[in-house]
Design goal:
By secondary structure, this protein is an all-alpha fold. It has 16 helices and three strands.
């Protein structure tokens, strides 16, 4: 009689033990968007750039490996490395200023071993880590601690703005506002921070954009501006630690900002610059130049109807009517070839990703991890909103890529690194049921 050989049973759960706390919905959502991005890039560039999609696929594979590695890394060790991360971030941006490569009128890339890297993309993650560590040590519940947290943004933001890279500088603003709010900053203070910019827009730019100096709309803009200044004064009176002087300062700054905005619009900005700002409201005013992208994008999305024209069958995309359709305007290609159903699926996937980021932030074991998740959440929400709004004519063209879908090696790798860091927060959290 032969004795049966007893072999150890290997369960798949034991293989996944190091990643038992991973948020798999978040991983599946990001990887799914990356795969869809590769499919769409291949569909719209196969005849011109047949290997373009393989770059995204290769970065995607590296990104998945990075998620697996970073999710096991104890993220809280980054607290003691915050200033090294901050230094590396600024060093990369400084290299762009001296050794950067200029394309399309902007200096944003540096060549590293034959590859073009965009340090401003990685700076987003560097700032999230640095701000999370600072707010972890001292929450932004006082004016001094809030200003201290904001001060770390000043240097990298200035270098990015001077590239010039308006899109990424706006992303920095969104990250800062989201993390400060989560870090217990008074919401009234955050509103007061952006109030001068809104004052400048309301007083003169809004009536001009809507009515081209229509005499009926100019008084409307002045009235809205005065109401806004008054509301800001009330918020300052109720929220600032020094109500009288603070209210006086807020009102004066908003009044000056309104006049400055009018001066800049009338005396400084050229006609083509004004058109670039307001073009999304009426792209037909310059259909062959500034408005061309927006017109073709809307035509493509409308042509997709409910189920789309199918991969490799879109007229606008396949005939290359949409410039930069594999980068900034990839959502237009999705709308044409996959239709309303495909577009809604993309939006629902982004909604799933953002929901899981909020869940991880809520259940993190410490403020540092929670703030990292909120920083990544703010970054993805803002970029998604602005990019999709740009393609459907609801926001100006800024050059912000659509996360995980647009072609761009630096942006895609940074987004995967960000998810890997958030997965580390999830993997090391307290075991809670939700």
């Amino acid at each position: 009689m032969f004795q049966k050989t007893l072999l150890p049973r290997i369960h798949w759960k034991s293989l996944l033990q190091p990643w038992r706390g991973l948020d798999w919905w978040l991983v599946l959502g990001t990887v799914g968007l990356m795969v869809l991005g590769c499919v769409m890039i291949r569909s719209i560039t196969a005849d011109r750039l047949p290997l373009q999609w393989t770059q995204n696929a290769g970065i995607g594979v590296i990104g998945i490996i990075a998620i697996a590695f970073l999710s096991r890394f104890p993220y809280d060790q980054l607290i003691q490395w915050r200033w090294y991360v901050y230094g590396i971030t600024n060093f990369g941006l400084l290299c762009v200023m001296f050794f950067g490569k200029t394309e399309l009128g902007a200096t944003r890339w540096i060549n590293v071993l034959g590859f073009n890297l965009q340090p401003s993309e990685f700076a987003k993650l560097g700032i999230i880590i640095t701000m999370a560590a600072i707010l972890h040590d001292r929450p932004a519940n006082t004016m001094g601690s809030m200003l201290r947290a904001m001060s770390v943004i000043a240097l990298p933001w200035t270098m990015i703005f001077l590239e010039p890279n308006l899109g990424t500088s706006l992303v920095f603003g969104a990250i800062t506002m989201g993390m400060l709010y989560w870090g217990n900053a008074n919401p009234g203070w955050l509103i007061l921070m952006i109030s001068p910019l809104i004052s400048a827009i309301i007083l003169r730019s809004l009536p001009m954009a809507l009515g081209s100096l229509n005499p009926v709309l100019v008084p409307l803009g002045i009235g809205l501006w005065l109401v806004w200044v008054a509301v800001m004064g009330i918020i300052a009176l109720r929220s600032l630690p020094w109500p009288r002087w603070g209210t006086f300062g807020v009102v004066v700054i908003n009044l000056i900002s309104g006049g400055l905005g009018e001066f800049l619009w009338i005396r400084v900005l050229q006609d083509y610059q004004k058109q670039r700002i307001t073009m999304f409201m009426n792209p037909e005013q310059d259909p062959l130049n500034g408005g061309y992208h927006l017109i073709q994008s809307r035509i493509a999305i409308g042509a997709g109807q409910v189920f789309g024209q199918g991969l490799n069958k879109g007229t606008q995309t396949q005939l290359n009517f949409i410039p930069e359709q594999h980068t900034d305007f990839i959502f237009a290609a999705i709308g044409e070839e996959l239709g309303f159903i495909g577009s809604i699926a993309v939006l629902l996937t982004f909604l799933l990703i953002c929901y899981r980021l909020l869940v991880i932030a809520q259940n993190a074991k410490d403020d540092f991890g929670s703030l990292i998740a909120i920083g990544v959440f703010s970054m993805i929400v803002f970029q998604t909103f602005v990019n999709i709004g740009m393609t459907i004519g609801l926001s100006p063209v800024t050059g912000i890529p659509l996360p995980y879908l647009s072609h761009g090696r630096s942006a895609l790798l940074m987004n995967f690194l960000a998810i890997g860091l958030v997965e580390s927060v999830a993997n090391h959290r307290q075991r809670l049921r939700y």
